[in-house]
Amino acid sequence: MDIAKLTGVDALKLVVMIVQAAQAVRHNKKTCQQLVHHVQIIGDLLKKLQNSEMMQQPEIRNGLNELEEILRQAYMLAVKEVPRLITGCLNPSATICSHRDARSNEPTCIPASSAESSSIEVCSEVKRYPLKSYCEDLSHFITESYKFNLFQLIDATNNFSHENQIGQGTFGCVYKGRLHNGLEVAVKRCFELPSSPNQIDVQDLEFQNEIRFLTKLQHTNIIKLVGYCIHGKERILVYEYMSNGSFDTFISGMFKDNKTASGLACTVPDN
Ligand SMILES: Nc1ncnc2c1ncn2[C@@H]1O[C@H](COP(=O)(O)OP(=O)(O)OP(=O)(O)O)[C@@H](O)[C@H]1O
């Protein structure tokens, strides 16, 4: 099926299509049921958002556009009968990240928020799926980024000190940091939103979208996500540090180099 044919289908319709596709899959029944369960949670959330005032906020609309793109890709995967893999990617409470297995030292996928409260049981096949095979089967969803613990980032940024702050965007403050291995990083500490259940959900979706999109889009012209941290209410993203100025400067520099928006789009790996 041509992905272009799905253009214009909204997120809620995609949820229905994914559920239908997953229910039609003959193999991996149990995994498909989990997939349906996870997608329906996203669908319920979208329904709640649909007529709310929050939909007027551009950042939420943008987040939902990105979610729609994720759902579109999930649908494409569902119809290709690989639900086992996308269950992990769509689990609203678990993000796949790469870690090394303590015994074999093999990179392994685990749910990033396994320490966080989760009412959803994460598919055990996904939990222990070796990163290598995962990459081979689903390279565009894999993340080479790592889950940091909060103390590593406190250490890297001198306790998020004022001196280390290099900027501030819509979603949080950005700090320059240096990891133990010497790598210079930009650490974005997301603002805490007022504690309304919906807003927290949306913030988490936004956060997870950022992780998925940046790890999926590996390209020399796209900033690399080095890792992330979830600790209590803390949501932190760790990017490679751009020594040549801000991201905006970098983007405008790119266009000065005759890399037009459409040219860039052409060079982004096509999933
Ligand atoms: N990877 C990075 N390396 C160096 N500086 C960075 C990096 N990322 C962000 N910054 C600095 O932090 C500032 C805030 O960045 P951030 O991505 O949070 O927001 P923004 O893209 O400027 O705005 P918005 O969030 O509203 O889109 C940037 O303007 C830049 O100066």
TrEMBL record:
GO terms for molecular function: ATP binding; protein kinase activity. InterPro entries: Adaptor_Cbl_N_dom_sf, Kinase-like_dom_sf, MCAfunc, MLKL-like_MCAfunc, Prot_kinase_dom, Protein_kinase_ATP_BS, Ser-Thr/Tyr_kinase_cat_dom. The keyword DNA repair does not apply. It comes from Eleusine coracana subsp. coracana. It holds the Pfam family PK_Tyr_Ser-Thr. GO terms for biological process: cell surface receptor signaling pathway. This is Protein kinase domain-containing protein. ATP binds at K188. Keywords: ATP-binding, Nucleotide-binding. Residues 160-271 form the Protein kinase domain. SUPFAM superfamilies: Protein kinase-like (PK-like). It comes from the Eukaryota.
